[in-house]
Amino acid sequence: MLTAGGTTLAVLAGCLTTSETGDDRDSDEAVNGTQTRDSGTTGTATSTATETLPTPVAGNPDASVTVAVYEDFACPHCKTFDEEVLPQLWSEYIEPGEIRYEHRDFPIPVDETVSWQAPSAARAVQATAGDDAFFEYADLLFANQASLGPDTYASLAGEVDADGETVRNAAVERRYDPAVRAARQRGIDAGVKGTPTAFVNGQQVRATYEALSSAIGEAQSDST
């Protein structure tokens, strides 16, 4: 995880969702495997997507405080969060094992293709190289947000010791849509309307370091 010094800029804005479903595919079809794609692709394509994965976790999985953040890899405000807020959380709370940190996918979608393909690329890294590699890869996706696409997914995979073609194919086929859609639905059920949206022990908190740090401190006090 990258670290940064200085004062974190407040994340005051976010990318807002305009629908409750994200794209026009039936969720039962996504879970059952056969998907007809009418968005996020050129033309009409079908793919079998059966892979599901647990939520990517960093820090102490058994910590009394859980910070969960819903993000869209195509959202510029999520990029700001990843580059200016998360590094401080990482150094102060995640790396020392003070919290359990969860990345949760929430394609708004900001971009009909990238918002759905990028999380499948990241989940392919998670599946083949583990959660630590997932978070490193997520950093790379945000750092290269302006050029995300199949070639970028493949080339970045090599930087975290994952197979580029496996990651590229997972992205293009949207292989991990069941896991991505399940995370998105969880967010909708929790009242998520945009990204980034953060929760501390289930309570929504502004996605700034100051707000999250305060909420973490309160949650730690409540658990003692």
What does this structure look like?
Helix content is 44%, strand content 15%. The strands form three sheets. A five-stranded mixed sheet has the order 4-6-5-8-9. Strands 1-7 form a two-stranded antiparallel ribbon. It has a single domain (46-222), classed as Glutaredoxin (3-Layer(aba) Sandwich). Helix 3 packs antiparallel against helix 4 and helix 3 runs parallel beside helix 5 (150-157). 50% of the residues are buried. It has helices at residues 27-32, 76-94, 114-129, 131-143, 150-157, 164-173, 177-189, 209-222; strands at 15-16, 34-37, 45-48, 57-59, 66-71, 100-105, 194-195, 197-200, 203-205. It has 224 residues and is an alpha+beta fold. It has eight helices and nine strands.
**So what's the CATH class?**
Alpha Beta
CA radius of gyration is 17 Å
| H/E topology pattern | EHEEEEHEHHHHHEEEH
Describe the largest sheet.
5 strands, mixed
CATH topology: Glutaredoxin
Task: Name the average pLDDT.
Answer: 85
Secondary-structure content class: alpha+beta
Low-confidence stretches: 2-12, 20-49
What is the count of DSSP helices, taking H or I runs of 4+ residues? 8
Count of discrete domains? 1
Describe the SSE topology:
Layout: E1 15-16, H1 27-32, E2 34-37, E3 45-48, E4 57-59, E5 66-71, H2 76-94, E6 100-105, H3 114-129, H4 131-143, H5 150-157, H6 164-173, H7 177-189, E7 194-195, E8 197-200, E9 203-205, H8 209-222
Parallel strand pairs: 5-6
Antiparallel strand pairs: 1-7, 2-3, 4-6, 5-8, 8-9
Helix pairs in contact: 3-4, 3-5, 3-6, 5-6
